[in-house]
Each structure stands twice: as structure tokens, then as C-alpha cells.
Specification:
single chain; mainly alpha; Arc Repressor Mutant, subunit A; 2 domains; 81% helix
Length: 191
């Protein structure tokens, strides 16, 4: 029973996020919509922020599960964009609140995980200095995060497919950057 009550709170909160900004949702709104008492809510969550963090934690764990199975960056970013777009109202309502940092943190961790996996696979078997690999990951990570942040904050007017097409173009540059780093290291090793 406890799991179903917690799931009810979780689903109710998501339904409310589809309707209004996070800052406008109260514990009272959740308990009234879920037809539970306040003590029940506080049994599972210390406050509404903990509930919001759980939403992003659940999505992040899905990314980690996908990551541990090994995946390509295209599939990973496609999944991230599709999840975001299918929850457009929720994201818009989080962006319209002071709690945007929770969404930004989730997006930041997810994109870094994807880029880390991708770049490390590109340099696998090559003697590229770790400092160079880390710099490439950071550079593209901030570029991707900036693009995603802008997409979220402007109401996701473009489709995931349109954003993914732009990422594909950007990742061609990433492959060239890694190739150049490998060439540079090979040149340095030949002296």
C-alpha cells in the first residue's frame, strides 16, 4: 500500500505541474488532489522540493541504466530530447518557477554522462592525454548544456528531431576535434 500511496503523490504532483508553475503548487494542492491527508504526504516527503528532486532522480537513474548497457550518443540525446518534449508543459512550468535549477542540474548531469561516454569511446585505444580528453568533454558539454537550456527556456519551439539534427552537425566537429587531438599526440610521440 505504501508504494501505491507514494506513486499517487508522485503522479498527482506531475499532473499539477502540467497545469501550473512549480512555485504555484503547494502541499495542500497535492493532498487535496490526491485525497490524502498532510501527514501522509510528509510521511514520504519532507517538502515539495524533495518531491521535485525525486522526479529528476528517477529520470537520471533511467539514463544511468541506459548508460550501463552501453549506448550511442545519438540514441541517448534522442531519448533526453523526447522525454523533455513529451513533458513540455511540466518543463515550461518548472522554467517559469524559481526552481529551474533542479531541471538544469538534471539536464547538466545527463548531457555530461552522454558526452563522457561518447568521447571516451572515440579516443579508446589512442594515447590522448587525459587533460585533453577532459577539456574536449567539458567544452562540448557546456555547448550542449547551453543549447538545451536555451531550448527549455524558450518553450521548446523546435521538435526533438530539429534539435538532434543540430547536435549531429555539432558532433561532426567533435569527431574532428578528437581526430586532431589523436594526430597531435601521434606527432608528439614520433619525435
Amino acid at each position: 500500500m505504501a508504494t501505491t500511496t507514494k506513486e499517487l503523490i508522485y503522479r498527482t504532483f506531475l499532473d499539477l505541474l502540467r497545469q501550473k508553475p512549480f512555485d504555484k503548487i503547494t502541499v495542500r494542492d497535492i493532498v487535496e488532489s490526491a485525497n490524502i491527508n498532510r501527514n501522509t504526504f510528509y510521511y514520504y516527503y519532507s517538502d515539495i522540493y524533495e518531491l521535485l528532486e525525486e522526479i529528476f532522480s528517477v529520470e537520471e537513474s533511467k539514463m544511468v541504466e541506459t548508460h550501463s548497457e552501453g549506448f550511442r550518443w545519438l540514441v541517448a540525446f534522442s531519448n533526453l530530447l523526447d522525454i523533455s518534449y513529451s513533458n513540455k508543459k511540466i518543463i515550461n512550468n518548472i522554467c517559469a518557477s524559481r526552481s529551474y535549477e533542479y531541471l538544469e542540474t538534471y539536464m547538466f548531469k545527463s548531457s555530461k554522462m552522454i558526452l563522457n561516454d561518447y568521447v571516451r569511446k572515440l579516443v579508446e585505444g589512442h594515447d590522448v592525454p587525459e587533460q585533453t580528453v577532459d577539456f574536449i568533454i567539458s567544452f562540448y558539454h557546456y555547448a550542449v548544456s547551453g543549447c538545451l537550456t536555451e531550448w527549455y527556456r524558450t518553450g521548446m519551439r523546435e521538435t526533438p528531431e530539429e534539435i538532434l539534427a543540430e547536435f549531429m552537425l555539432m558532433f561532426e566537429g567533435l569527431v574532428n576535434t578528437v581526430d586532431r587531438a589523436i594526430e597531435r599526440q601521434n606527432d608528439a610521440d614520433s619525435f
